[in-house]
Queue: 3 jobs
Job 1
Amino acid sequence: MGGHVIMTEAKEILNRGMEQGLERGLEQGRKEKIRIFVDLVNDRVLSLEEAAKRAGMTVDEFKNHIEELD
């Protein structure tokens, strides 16, 4: 019985670690996508409004990201 409990706990720890890693990876990907949109706005390839729309945020939210990256 003790081995089964240890294996169950190990699986739970592994699953939590995988979920946290996935969440971090998704967040990093989202930040990179926003950075690319900010670069496109700075290069005047996309309008501020279009970049915000493509990033799934309001213009004000997008402006905040521009300020964070500058």
Note: The chain has a mean pLDDT of 89.
Job 2
Amino acid sequence: MKKFLALIGICTLLFSCGKNVSKDATDLQEKSGKYSLLEMDGNDISGENFTFELDAANQRLSGKTGCNNFVASYEVEEDGSLKFNPPLGTKMYCEGQMEYEETFGEIVPKIVKVEISAEELVFLSKANKTLLKLQKQQASE
């Protein structure tokens, strides 16, 4: 029984160490780069090829959501939470490519938390609902 419990403890330790996740928004400073949007407001939209760029030095998230370009600035609050301003963007109409743009504009100001891992950024609401899930793009050689 002791060996079994020791084995369970080792497995737990190994798996928890492999998922190094920070919930401190100040750690975004080290995460600048290009990202693909995988999920928005609970919807898998990985096939839509939305691309975002995080510019942590200027506290800005920008990119393209289907048809239009956007930019949204943010602040890291003293308590480590985030405060996003509503995104500003172009206002073009593109047939069949605008399904998620209105939703995106509505949810960005609701972002207050982030979970940061090596390859993903997960932006959350106050109630811990996943609003945006981004995956780091591999640098092209």
Note: The chain has a mean pLDDT of 85.
Job 3
Amino acid sequence: MSAAGLRVELHLQPTTELDGIRAATESEAVELDNAMYTGNDHWYQHLTVTSELDRSALRERLSAVVDRVTGISAAEFDDDTYYVLVRVEEPEPFVVTSVARTGAIPHRVWLLDGHLSVTASVSDWSHLRRVADRLEDDYRTFDLLRSAQVETMGFPLGNHKFKHAVHSSIPASQLELLRTAHREGYFDVPRSVTAAELADIVGISQSTLSERLRRAQDALLGVMFGSQ
């Protein structure tokens, strides 16, 4: 199959409200999972926020820098991760509109280590040049961190719905087992670790590992295909 386009990662100056949210909540990272325009430069934004603040303090800090805090829920897999829905004012330029108006597809927008990072898909190098011209107009400077040819253009922002559904529907112990198996290469083709090696890593018998992995995979597929 021939390549359908280019997947690129860009670094921009953190000029959006994400930076204000990060500073106010003392966050390690803030990710924009989705954004919906409501008019007059205002947006509803679904965010994933990593902060050591408790939920009450996080709400108080957010309320000081956004128009409205609609909801906060804690991730089961990590005490320092929260899913947040807020209404904020994002005067132009806003990175989502800057990228989308060029015809590029934004996949991920997150703020980490002083950089606003954007992963997006473009059709070809000339399309990337048009995106670059727009970003230079809107943000004065940006860095192209990496690029790679891809066979599909992929989906825009909004995959947070599946992520949130997984974290709210699957027990933390099953998520951690799946995460460890993925990190160690158990699902690679060919596998980087055997079942016996993975069982040693997590400290359980191979038969117990097999049963728990089947249960975790069944729970994940249940979220995907609606059996739960």
Note: The beta strands are 5-12, 29-39, 42-50, 68-74, 81-89, 105-112, 115-122, 142-150.
